[in-house]
Amino acid sequence: MNRKNALRTLAGGFAALLLAASAAHAQPKPAGDGGTVRIMINPAGTMGIAPAVIKKYGLDRKHGFTLETVPYADQKSATAAIQSGAAEMVVFDWLAAARLRASGTPIVGIAPFLTYVNSVVVPKDSPLKTLADLKGKRVGVQSKTGFDWIIMQAAAKQLYNMDIGKDAEVREGAVPLLRGLIEKGDLDATQMWNSLAPEMLASGRYRTLVTIRELAQQMGLPTVPFLFFSMREDYAKAHPGNARAFAAAYRDAVDILMNQDDVWQEHGERLKLSPESLVFFKQQVRRDLLKQFTPDMTRGLEATLTAVNGVAADVVALPALPPGLLSLAYQ
Question: What span is annotated as the signal peptide, if there is one (predicted)?
């Protein structure tokens, strides 16, 4: 090799080193500190989807932490785990999270998940068209203290000047039981979870009377996160990088869920959904997914709390939204 070629080779190698160094420097450093974040979830429900995607695609490691999912059977056990420090995060609805924060267990929302996803279903050939038509009808509700029923009462009062709790024959029970009752013809309408409604709709024997999200919209209430990822506030303050890392991993998971169809198959199998019902489920979840908090969501929750307190203040048991429930600091 002559002197000119040698210099040219040396210069090329030096340029490659500079390019590699520049690329490495441009690569953002993961926000997390490498620690483990334990999240309480109900594996049989929709809330397990985002954590499963984060783990499947290594989005936690990409952002510098390790996500560990811890199953829970009910809200009491999840609350106990948060209070004892046995877990760092939990997925709760906004009313449960607000009650917990107001009662002295400081949890803070660091990322949204879904807006209102549940619905009221009726037989396909039912003449019922709105909540007003439920007067005198047999209506199944999962819980008379649950948010879905409270917002149904608020909507009936505001939209139709109707006391649905008195004007309808209300039957309370577990959602699988309610499904069995309507299939036997013992209910005219029933609340239904978003993980069970798709199978009913896909059968062709049922239709949606109204979704909880539609009721909130008809009342003029803004879109808010019904379910969101809450973290112990002491942990978030001690490990802000991990809080930001989870929020970033969640946003990546939303992109995957919105744009890749194959990722839904395993979730359908976990929820025991038929291929036909999985189509309904995927469409619904994609419609209701929220990617990140916005500044107006706290005001939206305050407006919603005012609306539900107007019909069930004793059940809601939360006169005002505790400050700091949702945080944009980790977005």
Answer: 1-26
Q: What is the pLDDT of residues 289-313, one digit of tens each?
A: 999 999 999 999 999 999 999 999 9
**pLDDT value of position 2:** 56
| Contacts of 272 by beta carbon, 8 Å cutoff, 6+ apart | none
In three-state form (DSSP H/G/I as H, E/B as E, the rest C), the secondary structure along the chain is CCHHHHHHHHHHHHHHHHHHHHHHHHCCCCCCCCCEEEEEECCCCHHHHHHHHHHHCCHHHHCCCEEEEEECCCHHHHHHHHHHCCCCEEEEEHHHHHHHHHCCCCEEEEEEEECCCCEEEEECCCCCCCHHHHCCCEEEECCCCCHHHHHHHHHHHHHHCCCHHHHCEEEECCHHHHHHHHHCCCCCEEEECCCCHHHHHHCCCEEEEEEHHHHHHHCCCCCCCCEEEEEEHHHHHHCHHHHHHHHHHHHHHHHHHHHCCCCHHHHHHHCCCCHHHHHHHHHHHHHHECCCCCCCHHHHHHHHHHHHHHHHHHHHCCCCCCCCCECCCCC
With 0-12 / 13-18 / 19 or more C-beta atoms within 10 angstroms meaning exposed / middle / buried, residue 145 is middle
Tell me whether the CATH fold assigned to 36-114+226-272+292-316 matches the one assigned to 119-218: yes
Q: Are 248 and 63 in contact (CB under 8 A)?
A: yes
CATH classification number, 36-114+226-272+292-316, choose in 3.40.50.720, 3.40.190.10, 3.40.50.1380, 3.40.50.2300: 3.40.190.10
CATH class of the domain comprising 119-218:
alpha beta
**What integer pLDDT is reported at residue 4 of this predicted model?**
52
Domain locations in the chain?
36-114+226-272+292-316, 119-218
